[in-house]
Design brief:
59 residues, 0% strand, globular, mainly alpha, 2 helices
Length: 59
Amino acid sequence: MDGRARDYQNSGAAHEVGHALGLCHKGDRFATLMMKRIQTPPITEPTSIDKANYKRLWG
């Protein structure tokens, strides 16, 4: 698997971990890990928006 394919795989896995932590899909207005579609280049770790949504949910 090349590096780019690995990044897409990691992005999908990280997105699903976000669901396991209670995060839902957010709109497509900002590039976040929890977007409905994968970005190019893929986002492989939580963004500041994802972190703020997690904090809002769990404190």
